[in-house]
Amino acid sequence: MSQTEAVEPVSPGAPGASTDGGPRQRSVRVVMVGLLIAMLLAMLDNMIVGTAMPTIVGELGGLDHLSWVVTAYTLATAASTPIWGKLGDMYGRKGIFLTSIVMFLIGSAASGMAQSMDQLIAFRAFQGLGAGGLMVGVMAIIGEMIPPRERGKYQGLIAGVMAIAMIGGPLVGGSITDNWGWRWSFYINLPIGVVALAMVTIVLHLPKKRSQGRIDYWGASLLTVAITSLVLLTTWGGTQYAWGSVQIIGLLVLGLVTLAAFIYAETRAPEPIMPLRIFRNANFSLISAIGFLVGFTMFGAMTFLPLYQQTVQGASATNSGLLLLPMLLAMMAVSMVAGRVTTSTGRYKIFPIVGGALITVGLVLLSMMDVHTTRLTSGIYMAVLGAGMGFIMQITMLIAQNSVEMRDIGVGSSSATLFRTIGGSFGVSLFGALFSHKVQHGMESSAAGAAATKGGAQLDPATIAKFPPDVKNAYFHAVASGTHTVFLWGAVISVLGFLAAWFIVETPLRGGPASKQEAPVEEEPLLADAI
Questions:
Q1: Which of 122, 114, 115 minimizes the C-alpha distance to 69?
Q2: What is the torsion angle, in degrees rounded to the nearest 10, for the CA atoms of residue 354, residue 292, residue 432 and residue 479?
Q3: d(Cα 424, Cα 427) in Å, to the nearest integer?
Q4: Could you please report the per-residue DSSP string of 246-282?
Q5: Backbone angles phi, psi at 113, to 5 degrees
Q6: What is this entry's stated membrane topology (predicted)?
Q7: For residue 201, which of 37, 8, 75, 42 has the smallest C-alpha distance?
């Protein structure tokens, strides 16, 4: 028996559950709204703030510290994610989740009131600590509230929130900054967050949990150092410091040493922050690797698609979110269909396989884009990639949660999220280095071009417009060549995820006919019946 009591939630078909669309089903929908709002907060924030950054630097100064506004938030989010997941497993998800929302809102308010760049960086780090609990809290609560067999019905909603954040973030951020000022790019979180806080507080009731175990402070510290080292390595490598520099090599050594020490510490801890037993399940280990690879390729694509379209195809930077519309709509539609099929049949292994194949095909198609590719053609290519992401994005979390015991649903969710985040960090960094090298190499044939791109390959559209025609044409070809290289390597890496998906074992989803419902222990009603 674990030191942390695990309780199987009420699910459709269990005693006391309602499946006829009654009060309990309506309460599920109300809770989902609150959870999706919290998820939107976490995803929307970086999109909005990114648009406001030039204005922030103009008022607060500190251009040399600009990258730390984003890095501090990213580091805090990544490092705190597994800790939030474990705390939820130990002390109950509702209270821990509400705490993360409050921290995020305090960080948002403080960031809006910052009077210097140093203050803004510190407040963004605090905000990132809260953000780490938002995503994992949403996923873990859904995992406890809705059994895997029924969860597919909600996949389209989650994919829809992702699409709204990616499309609406830059538009909302630009509008807020232009009309209300940059501080409102942080203040806008407050009313939205209060709504989520109120809905979750009033409607959501989860089982009581008691933990006699002690928090694994040593493991948490080692994991935080390891994650921080790896994220900084991928953030600074090839940009602030050369890949072979003492700083980057030092970060790599520090990350590997602390990671090894963390693994050893987890074998000794009575209540480990990331129990190694979850990796004994082959499905969980496979889906973690697939999540890493999907993050690697997905974030690379999301970074360089707008760059290609704004530079080569001359699209407006203001509407950068709309450029991804074909990919995001395809992702949302396919995710919804895959979720419904999973719920009705209980079958899911085919989706990571098909998704891996479509992601590979989509990246190969995107690698074929050149200076003559039309927006319609690139939109079709993006739709293929989006369909692949739709098959695999939410299914990976479902498989991860179904592969762990209910007592580990939090660390299972946070680990799956962490692997995807780290994969994305590596993808953006390594693809960025490939892209910059290819663009710089492509411009070396022109003396004027080499001078124009000296010190950095990525230029803003206004600067590019001032280039002489021959230099502009050379730059467009160089960018097209760079994106070709990025997407081609992305396709090679995605093949690994496709191959790994074949080894997933399709075990029955909890909550289906083949699963046994355990009697609840000291359980409150899962959801308020008053709605």
A1: 122
A2: 0
A3: 5
A4: HHHHHHHHHHHHHHHHHHHHHHH-SS-SS-GGGGGSH
A5: -95, 0
A6: Multi-pass membrane protein
A7: 37
Q: Are 456 and 307 in contact (CB under 8 A)?
A: no
Alpha-carbon distances, residue 350 vs 171, 327, 513 (angstroms)? 36, 21, 20
Query: For 460-516, what is the HEC assignment?
Result: CHHHHHCCCHHHHHHHHHHHHHHHHHHHHHHHHHHHHHHHHHCCCCCCCCCCCCCCC
Q: Helix H segments across 204-349?
A: 217-236, 246-268, 282-311, 320-323, 325-345
pLDDT string in tens for the chain (531-residue length): 334 333 334 433 333 344 344 445 556 777 888 888 888 888 887 777 776 776 777 777 666 666 678 778 888 888 899 999 988 888 888 889 999 999 999 999 999 999 888 899 899 999 999 998 998 888 888 888 888 878 777 777 787 787 777 777 777 777 787 788 888 889 989 998 999 899 888 888 776 666 666 788 898 899 889 988 988 888 788 777 888 899 999 999 999 999 999 999 999 888 888 888 999 999 999 999 999 998 888 877 777 887 787 778 776 655 656 777 888 889 888 988 888 888 888 888 999 999 999 999 999 999 999 888 888 898 999 999 999 988 998 888 889 988 988 888 888 888 888 888 888 878 877 887 788 778 777 776 655 555 555 544 445 555 666 667 777 777 788 888 888 888 999 999 999 999 999 999 988 887 655 444 433 333 333 333 333
Please give the helix or strand (H or E) that residue 173 lies within, else none: helix 155-179
| Cα–Cα distance, 220 to 273 (Å, whole number) | 6
Determine the Cα–Cα distance for residues 217 and 365; give it in Å rounded to an integer. 47
Q: Which two tokens stand for residue 8?
A: 């199987």
Helices (H) and strands (E) counted in the chain, each on its own, are 19, 0
Gap between the Cα atoms of 23 and 526, Å rounded: 12
Got the DSSP string for 412-429? HHHHHHHHHHHHHHHHHH
Amino acid at 296: F
The residue length of the chain stands at 531
Q: Please name the residues in contact with 180: beta carbons below 8 A apart, sequence gap of 6 or more.
A: none
How much is the pTM?
Answer: 0.79
Burial of 15 (0-12, 13-18, 19+ CB in 10 A): exposed
Handedness of CA 436, 437, 443, 449 (dihedral sign): positive
- DSSP 8-class letter at 153: G
**Secondary structure string (H, E, C) spanning 110-137:** HHHCCCCHHHHHHHHHHHHHHHHHHHHH
Alpha-carbon span 335 to 341, nearest angstrom? 10
Residues with Cβ < 8 Å from 59, sequence gap 6 or more?
182
* DSSP secondary structure letter of residue 214: P
SS3 label, residue 313? coil
Cβ neighbors of 125 (< 8 A, separation 6 or more) are 72, 73, 75, 76
Residues 290, 388 contacting (CB under 8 angstroms): no
